[in-house]
Specification:
Quinone Oxidoreductase, Chain A, domain 1, 6-stranded parallel beta sheet, 2 domains, single chain, alpha/beta, Rossmann fold, 325 residues, 7-stranded mixed beta sheet
Length: 325
């Protein structure tokens, strides 16, 4: 038996409860693991609060991320005692996830825990931080250099934004953080932001082309924020888009692409191939300061995850939430 968060939806409605489950209920997969820590990402928040149809199979154990130890394995790449990190792959949506004391996962989904990180630190990074690293890698692939100019990070106090600021600042970029939380300016500057701007400047409809400012952008917000960021990106710049906190719509024009040669680079963390995941985690181990990581991290127990998800969806959380299993 093990403790788990269980999401249920039936004629009686939606329920998210901490319960005890038998290992025999776990879905089939070739590696049995013991998650020591998980985390709450935006998608977990949606699932735990039932604010969007994230869960596609009921009942469901949420938790798209996990870090801990392999218990049993039928996969040739994993053996008992190995330390792992898991991100994405539809876990918590169609396959039971890691907000539980046990999980069965596919060996091909797992990445070895870098020696530089404890399981707690890996989950302080989580999908949000791993996505931020994927965004930085996308900018690098398109040739963005620190000397090219300012880089805008939207949704700056969120998990993706916080880690992106720290990573970009470490690489020598001048980072401008966009946030609606003016009181968090000191926090953002501590992470490495050179300047902080009000997200309201980007949130309303704007002109198709605006004054050129950004050499690059990391956007986790979408909608008008992404469109305005594109309209303000300098000639030949790159915008890495990875989120939709403000919506899935893209109410813009082709003007930035065909008149300024701007690149819109889509970043997906859920189904990213293994080689890219390993590259991202290797770079995180090299580039992310553990001390800065701690400043952006708060911790709850498994019994506090539902309440924490409510705070996350209300915009009352900064940085990352780790969940102690």
């Amino acid at each position: 038996m093990f403790k788990a968060l269980l999401l249920e939806k039936d004629d009686a409605g939606f329920r998210a409860s901490l319960t005890e489950l038998d290992e025999s209920r776990l879905p089939d997969a070739d590696v049995l693991v013991q998650p020591e820590y998980s985390t709450l990402n935006y998608k977990d928040g949606l699932a735990l609060t039932n604010k969007a149809p994230v869960v596609r199979s009921w009942p469901m154990v949420p938790g798209i991320d996990g870090a801990g130890t392999v218990i049993e394995s039928r996969h040739p790449g994993w053996k008992p005692g190995d330390r792992f990190v898991h991100n994405g792959w539809g876990v918590g949506e169609t396959h039971w996830g890691c907000l539980a004391g046990r999980a069965r996962l596919k060996g091909e989904w797992l990445v070895r825990l870098p020696a530089a990180f404890t399981p707690r630190q890996a989950m302080a990074i989580g999908t949000a931080g791993y996505t931020a690293m994927l965004c930085v890698l996308a900018l690098e692939r398109h040739g963005v250099q620190p000397g090219d100019g300012e880089v805008l990070v939207t949704g700056a106090t969120g998990g993706v934004g916080s880690v992106a600021i720290a990573l970009l600042a470490k690489r020598g970029f001048r980072v401008v953080a966009a946030t609606g939380k003016a009181a968090e300016a000191d926090y953002l500057q501590q992470l490495g932001a050179a300047a902080v701007m009000d997200r309201a400047e980007l949130a309303s409809p704007g002109k198709p082309l605006q004054k050129e400012r950004w050499a690059a952008v990391v956007d986790a917000v979408g909608s008008h924020t992404l469109v305005n960021a594109l309209a303000q990106t300098r000639y030949g710049g790159t915008v890495a888009a990875c989120g939709l906190a403000a919506g899935m719509d893209l109410p813009g024009t082709v003007a930035p692409f065909i008149l300024r040669g701007v690149t819109l680079a889509g970043v997906d963390s859920v189904m990213a191939p293994r080689a890219l995941r390993e590259q991202a985690w290797s770079r995180l181990a090299a580039d992310l300061d553990p001390a800065l990581l701690e400043t952006m991290t708060s911790e709850v127990g498994l019994d506090g995850a539902v309440a924490a998800a409510g705070r996350l969806m209300a915009g009352a959380v900064r940085g990352r939430i780790v969940v102690r299993i």
